[in-house]
Specification:
177 residues; five-stranded antiparallel β-sheet
Length: 177
């Protein structure tokens, strides 16, 4: 056991790809450029069921006979906004305005990656909250599962309440401790 702990180290990189259906994906380390296996269970322990391609990620890594493997996710940052146009329904809201919105606990009702949207129920509110795929990606997620607990920063859009940011339930709890 002592030998295993000595072989663990923190690595920062970007998500090469992650497939929730397959249950794994890979991270490319900044320093070595080598691939690191990211298993769905490790991601779930962080509180997310998916992660967006090109998201920045910091993990604890352990070398195994089959290669480097993430054993703990420490931080996930959304992919950099590569000049993507603003999301029309969010209007002129910038990152600072969105970050100032309260986190509202919610549960995913359904999300269809192919359609590019879904809905969540915020606790204590009767209306659904619309979640657009681009908001999800910019929040660092690739997909959401029905029943998944998340926190949302919500704005009133032209067609009702919509998510301006999605945060994993566990990440929101870590921030507010």
């Amino acid at each position: 056991m002592q030998e295993e702990q000595q072989d663990q180290h923190e690595v920062t990189g970007r998500v090469k790809w992650f497939d929730p259906t397959k249950g794994f994906g890979f991270i490319v380390a900044d320093e070595s450029g080598g691939d690191i296996l990211l298993h769905a269970n490790v991601l779930r322990n962080f509180g997310q069921s998916s992660v967006a391609d090109n998201a920045r990620i910091t993990v604890m890594v352990q070398k195994t006979a089959r290669g480097a493997q993430a054993i703990e996710v420490r931080e996930i940052l959304p992919p950099e906004d590569e000049g993507a146009p603003p999301i029309q329904d969010l209007g002129e809201a910038d990152a600072e305005v969105i970050a100032g919105l309260p986190l509202e606990p919610a549960r995913v009702k359904w999300f269809d990656k192919t359609k590019g949207f879904g809905f969540a129920n915020v606790y204590g509110r009767p209306e659904d909250v619309f979640i657009h795929i681009e908001v999800l990606r910019r929040s660092g997620f690739a997909d959401l599962q029905p029943g998944e607990a998340v926190c949302l920063r919500v704005m009133d859009g032209k067609r009702g309440r919509m998510a301006a940011q999605v945060v994993s339930w566990d990440a929101a709890l870590r921030v507010h401790k």
